[in-house]
Amino acid sequence: ILRTTNALRTMESLERYRGHFYNWYNTQTLAPLVPAYVSTVDSGNLAAHLLTLRPGLTALPDTPILSRRWLKGLSDTFALLLDTVGGDLAVVAQFEQTLTSAGVTGSATLAAAWVHVEQLAMCAADLAGHFAADPALHPESEASVWTQALARQCAELRDELVFLAPWLSLPLFPETTLDFPGLTGIPTLREIAAFDTTSLSIRERRGDNEATVQRQDALARIRELVAQGASRAQARMVALDQLALQASALATMDYDFLFDKVRRQLVIGYNVGEHRCDSSYYDLLASEARLCNFIAIAQGELPQESWFALGRLLTITGGEPVLLSWGGSMFEYLMPLLVMPTYENTLLDQTCVAAVERQIEYGRERGVPWGISECGYNTVDVHLNYQYRAFGVPDLGLKRGLGEDLVVAPYASALALMVTPEAACLNLQRLAADGLAGRLGLFEAIDYTPSRQRRGESSAVVRSFMAHHQGMSLLAFAYLLLGRPMQKRFESDPLFQATLLLLQERIPRATAFHANAPDLSELRVAASSPEMPVRVLASPDTAIPEVQLLSNGRYHVMVTNAGGGSSRWKDLAVTRWREDITCDDWGTFCYLRDVASGEFWSTAHQPTLKQTEHYEAIFSEGRAEFRRRDFDLETHTEIVVSPEDDIELRRVKITNRSRTRRTIDVTSYAEVVLAPAAADALHPAFSNLFVQTEIIQGRQAILCTRRPRSVNEHVPWMFHLMTVHGGGAGDVSFETDRMRFIGRGGSVAAPAAMIDPGTLSDTEGSVLDPIVAIRHRLVLDAGAAATIDMVSGIGDTRDAALSLVEKYQDHRLADRVFELTWTHSQVVLRQLNTTEADSQLYSRLASSVIYANASLRAAASVLVRNRRGQSGLWGYAISGDLPIVLLQIADIGNIDLVRQLVQAHAYWRLKGLAVDLVIWNEHHDVYRQRLQEQIMGLIAAGVEAHVVDRPGGIFVRIAEQISFEDRILIQSVARAIITDSRGTLAGQINRRAPTEVRIPRLVPTRTHRPEAQSVAELPHEASILFNGIGGFTPDGREYVIAPAAGQATPVPWVNVLANPHFGTVVTECGMAYTWSENAHLFRLTPWHNDPVGESSGEALYLRDEETGHFWSPTLPQPGGAAPYVSRHGFGYSVFEHLEDGIGSELTVFVALDAAVKFSSLKVRNHSGRPRRLSATGYVEWVLGDLRAKSAMHVTTEIDSRNAAVYARNPYNNEFADWVGFFDVDDAT
Questions:
Q1: Does residue 632 sit in the same domain as residue 729?
Q2: CA 190 to chain centre
Q3: What is the pTM of this model?
């Protein structure tokens, strides 16, 4: 009663419109939410339930104050507690004994009931206290919850008796008997209110005067408490009358503005703010609106003819006629039955029975539990709230597409308890057994729709509880267990009695039947369709790297099908990455090493490039996976980005498929940046100087940060950790120095840390070239598996980073990341109104945005005609700093291409990929404006409306207003060109570039056998300041470097060869880069600025044309024993080498007065037999500052007559007309 009083009081305080409550209110302020809307059917349902509440309130005074079912209610609660804790505990057994005793002795009188209630309340309090004192029991556990519920239920019973019959709390003398006619049973509220205390007396025993006085005092006290109880009962009766009046008043609403007098039907609703009715109507009898119609007719608000204006279209189901509904949902058919009665052999009764039977049959056909209605389903919004809409059975609904979804709601089965109780009960039990039973009841729904499932799963539980569905279920339970109480109240109300005849409409003998073609075939197609689209790439060697984009909106990961990629946080690069379509060897990697054999490989193809027995890269929305098998060890790698924390999780599962125990070293690796990617690319060595590392031994983690370069600079903290679950975990070691990990002259393909056995060095602090690497040693028995979680992430502060380190020690929280990732990916797709298949298409197109792809770029004939640079874009508000995707559209019939590209652009932005989308409207004048309007309308209607003409946004331009030269420019710089003349977007992405003419592989005619040779040594006595590797010649004119086999200089030693306008830097092993005019802005070849590795954009190779053996005259081969000697003087460098009987001498110098670098190679045959050799020169053109920025803009030309290659970069504003060349003379 208190809850009802509070609810009605709050309802009275809410703002209403002509008696109708608005559809939405702010729960904090109680103000209506925008749009202020009146829902016709919700108003009618509310009025019906308020008016059903009224006779229940008026009947309470004549109802016994203690229900006959009170003991059964306690027994049910106790049974639930027993299911949780069992009956072994003494306190549990004590309550059970007291409960059993109460059932045996009965509670025929108020006094008897009071004894049992008091004893049970005391036992329940002891029970609750016992469990509350157990430190091992969580307050939210099932045992605690049901114990508290039992104690609360007993206490409320006791308090209610004490309130209405306060005399029960007084002990009576055993030798006295209270003589009062009204206490022979359980009184009603009205009987207590009418108690006359003057008739109350005590039977006395003779001869006991003292006892008589005491009894008379007790009698006075009892009379006082009986009077108090009567007063309270009278006050409650007044309150009940007041509540009944409130319910009636709140149910009074004006339906005139919702009623169409021509159609004689109610509209769906009314927008108060716009003073506008909806354009649709409730026009079917088989709908939830029939309750609203009935109530309004009974109240005199609508004419009785409106009932017969509701459609009665019939179909045949199971041989029986049934009224068709709009959505085919259980809610439409059965919700009115919660309060409104039905009558046998009537149209409505037959319809409800047949509808439930069809629902049962449909569930059987689909092989799932039955019960389909409007409910939540397995899609969430940006706030992670489940979405809600109507679902139904195709045969029962007029709405098309009902077969496209399959969602089962338990409350639909609860509603069916009122029609087919046995079948509904069995179905509810099945749902509970299938995992839908939660602490607050059955979960909202279970979604079987294939398109909304995770890969490998056939259903998803919608883990929420909706109050109105739980409330409907309770009313349906009351219908079955309490004998139709709401329907009896409904029928007893004089307001309804005159209108009940409308519910007794007979089944028509002849009518028009609707031949409803079911949508079952559609659902069968959907159910048998493949799972959510994934990309499975069986090879890492694709024409361009295929990428997968993972992001939570702040932390972004790009992964390629070979295992390369990048990690970024906001505008900072977390790990180092360079666009390199050929090598693709940047990213976060995981090495495996068999300790016994020394063999090592990586969990993906990169970086070791080892061939494998089986390889797969699997890309699904929100996840990247790699599978491979090496040396009887299977690895499965999963990569995700957490939606709630700025971390990436790389989970590697290793399974030993061999028959022996294996010891495996698992080693992670990533190069740390923590700076803008552009700054790192320009000067990585300088950027590295500011990074500091710290090893957290106890948590198997590494922290990294940058020293701030100014007082106001805020620097984040990166962390990297590795946890192992399963397997015999052994030693853990760490490395943060790239030089120590890779080794001088090494590479990520074969780092020193994988070649040399043992642990890592645990170096930390201000290292010159920072990395994060953690090594765990595992022992795997035959058939055993271990899971390794590698987590990298960012925190704003050191404490925030440490907090994440601590959090992800827990394997369960790491598991949760995968759960959240899938949910977040569905949110993103819903936010963009796109599908998984579309997102895969957009990711494939992103591959060509990140890695330039000739098949989607302009034709070579267009590229070579461009003469304009980056500044030519500025007049169109395009900076040219970001990748450009160009869409050319001329036909308004292909407008869907615009929709797809705009959607792709939004998808890329959410994934952290910034792209300028340029749309050219190429339609003829007569239609141009119409197409332009459609393009702009599509953009304005989506999530990209706010990025028009902004960096990283959308630029719509009319092609005729662009000059010919600028058209060539934009086409030349676009990384992908999509045009409506080439078909669909998918077709254009699938298009392959013309097959390149490949040089046939050399077929050796001889077997290569290394020839024995002596290793020349530098005479120590002939050198000055010799350091074990090199020294000066006696005349001081040259510095000679002659390392022993496997020996290298500690860092690159260089010679600068230059004139005032041109120069080159050459290292001791021939690595070089060349520039002209400006060593930074106009590099001819790349400067890698890497003191560890030996990468170079210039190279020279010699090859034996008979054996196929090849080598470099400057760069030592890994593991080679052949001697290399280099001599460096003023203005030149000379490299001497002897390989397989072939001596070579390469002299490098720069012209004094020309922008020309010369490399003069002399070859001498010392083998004693004729040799046929070839020399191959190699140059990577830059013609700018960074190869990644300029590579796609460089055009080349071959001059066959002069045996030269020319290169030009028109995109370089300052050097657009300069031409680089590479020329090789004939051998002499």
A1: yes
A2: 60
A3: 0.73
